[in-house]
Amino acid sequence: MTSERRRALLELAAFFLRLGTTAFGGPAAHVAMMEEEVVRRRGWLTREEFLDRLSAANLIPGPSSTELAIHVGLRRAGPAGLVVAGVCFILPASLIVGVVAWAYVRFGALPALSGVLRGVKPVVVAVVLQALVGFGRTALRGWPSVALALAAAAAVALGADALAVLLATGVAALALRAAARPPPLAAGLALPGLWALWAAAPPIRFGLARLFLVFLKIGAVLFGSGYVLLAFLRADLVDRLGWLTQAQVLDAVAVGQVTPGPVFTTATFIGYLLGGAAGAAVATVAIFLPAFALVAASGPLLPRLRRSPWAGAFLDGVNLASLALMAVVTARFGAEVLRDLPGVAIFALSAGLLLRYRLGSSWLVLGGAVAGAALSWARL
C-alpha cells in the first residue's frame, strides 16, 4: 500500500468516525455534513460527483446516508476506502445505541435526551438549508430543471412514494433530452437488487441465525425513512415472529432517530434486546451488509453512466428529485422545530456562523447540544 493511499484511508477513518459520533438529525443532515466536508472543505469530490452518488444511494435499497458514505470511501480510496468509510460511520453510532440499549434493559426506560435534542434540531435545520442552497446552484440549470424539481417536491409533499418520484423525475429529464435529440434504440439503466431475500427469515422462535436473516432481508429491500423501517420491523418482529411488543419496536426506532449516525442502528438496539451484545452485533452487521454489496456493485458504473448523454440526463433528473426530497424533509423538520424563541435563536445563530465564518457543522451540533441541555436545566 502506498503512503498516499494509507493517508487517504486515515483521513477517511478520522472524518467518518467523527461524523458517526456527532451527526444528529437523520439522513438529510448527514448528507449536508458530508457535502460540507467532502466537497467544500476537502475537495475529495466535485458537487456533481457528490450529487451523482447521492442519487445512486437513493435508487438502491438500504440506508441512503450510509451508502453515500460508502460511495465517498470508494471514490476516495478504492475498495479499502469503501470498507473504512462505511465501518467508521456505522461503528460509533452502533456503540452509542448499544449503551442506550443496555440502559434500557437495565433500568426499563430510555435515557432523557429531550433537552439535548431541543438544541441540536435547530442547528440541523440550518446545516441542511446551507447544503440545499449549494445543491440548488449545481442542479438547477434553467426553467425546465426548476419545473421538474417543483413537481417532484409537490409529489413528495402529497404523499407519493419517494422511489417512484426519483425514477419518474429521471425519466422525465430523459424525455426532455430525447425531445431535443432522439436516443439510441437500446438505452437503459440497470440497478442491482436482492429482492429474493424478502422471504428468507422463517417464522420460528428466536435464534441468532434467524435474527441475521431478518435484518439482512430488511437491509436488502427497504427504501425510505425511519418511519418505513418502523413498518417493516412491526410486520416482522411483532406480527409475524412475535419476538417484541409494539412498544419495544417504537422505543427502538425512537433511539435510532435521536442518536447520532444512521437511523438503521435501530437494529443494534433490537438485537441487544433480543440477544444481548451478540444479538446487537449480528443485527447491525446484517442490516448494513447489503449496503456495502450494493454500492460495490453499482459504484464503478457511475463514471461510465455520467459520460453517456442519456444516462447523464437520467441522473440529472434523479438529482433534481433528490434535491426536492431534501427540501420537503427540511420544510417539515423546520416547521416542527422552529416553534419557540430559543429554537429560532439557535437556528439564526447557527445559520450566521455557517454563512459568515464557515464554522464546521460538527462543532455547531455540539454547541446546540450544550445549549439545549442548559435550556432544559433552566426549564426555559
Q: What does it look like?
A:
- The radius of gyration is 21 Å and the shape is globular.
- Helix content is 78%, strand content 0%.
- The protein is built from 15 helices and no strands.
- The protein is mostly helical.
- About 6% of the residues have low confidence.
- Helix 1 packs across helix 4, helix 5 crosses helix 14 and helix 10 crosses helix 11.
Class derived from helix and strand content: mainly alpha
Beta-sheet strand percentage?
under 5%
Shape: globular
Q: How many structurally independent domains?
A: 1
The number of helical segments is: 15
Low-confidence stretches: 183-203
The total beta strand count reads 0
Rg on CA atoms, Å: 21 Å
Q: Estimate the helix proportion, in percent.
A: over 70%
Q: Gap between N and C termini, in Å?
A: 55 Å
- Which sequence of SSEs, written as H and E, runs from N to C? HHHHHHHHHHHHHHH
Largest sheet: none
Mean pLDDT: 82
What distinguishing features does this structure have?
globular, 78% helix, 380 residues, 0% strand, mainly alpha
Task: Describe the structure concisely.
The protein is mostly helical and 380 residues long. The chain is 78% helix and 0% strand.
Helix/strand layout:
Layout (H helix, E strand, L loop, with lengths): L2 H20 L4 H15 L5 H12 L5 H44 L6 H26 L3 H15 L4 H19 L27 H14 L4 H15 L5 H13 L7 H33 L3 H6 L1 H29 L3 H17 L3 H18 L2
Helix pairs in contact: 1-4, 2-4, 2-5, 3-4, 3-13, 4-11, 5-13, 5-14, 5-15, 6-7, 6-13, 7-13, 8-11, 9-10, 10-11, 14-15
